[in-house]
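Review form for a predicted model. The reviewer records the input and the model, then writes brief findings.
Reviewer: anonymous (R2)
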Amino acid sequence: MHPIQARVALARHACRLAYTLLKTQQPFDEQRYRRARHQSER
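Model under review:
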């Protein structure tokens, strides 16, 4: 994987995480994060 692709993926992930936190206004949910990550890996 090219460094730029990795950087874009990381940025997109961070944006999605921050957006989710803003929307829910709740502390970081590790279980939900793991499930979402597992789902996207398939």
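Findings: The longest helix spans residues 3-24.
Further findings: Residues 3-41 form one domain.
Recommendation: see findings above.
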